[in-house]
Write a structure and sequence with these properties.
α1 (3-14) packs across α2 (25-42). The protein has a two-stranded antiparallel sheet. The protein starts with a helix and ends in a 20-residue tail after the last helix. Helix content is 42%, strand content 4%. It is built from 5 helices and 2 strands. It has helices spanning 3-14, 25-42, 56-59, 69-76, 87-90; strands at 20-21, 84-85. By secondary structure, it is mainly α.
């Protein structure tokens, strides 16, 4: 699968739920490509903006769409990566802010 195919497949699933891809298509496709690379390397689509542990169980919370997406989009209009955004965010109807990391420090590897 290529990034464009993943884009089209996920768009059909996520938009009815109120989650849109970032209108910056170049960035969006790069993030989707990174998800596909993680799937090939790890066996699952770990968040491309976080360092995966390599264990499905340890990384369960950051498998895209991660468990932090919903509260991020609700509060900031975008997820941590900026891959998924609200309609208002894409329409520049809300202020764009840096989304803080919600993942607990004990799960973050350095």
């Amino acid at each position: 699968m290529e990034a464009r195919e993943l884009f089209e497949a996920l768009k059909k699933i996520q938009e009815p739920k109120g989650y849109y891809f970032n209108k910056d298509e170049e960035m969006t496709l790069q993030l989707l490509e990174s998800l596909l690379e993680n799937k090939e390397k790890l066996g699952y689509m770990a968040c491309p903006c976080r360092l995966a542990n390599g264990s499905f169980e340890a990384d369960r919370d950051i498998i895209c769409p991660c468990e932090y997406r919903e509260p991020d989009v609700k509060e900031y209009g975008a997820c941590f990566c900026g891959l998924y955004v609200s309609k208002e965010w894409n329409e520049d109807a809300i202020e764009k802010e840096v989304v803080p990391e919600r993942r607990p420090p004990e799960k973050i590897i350095f």
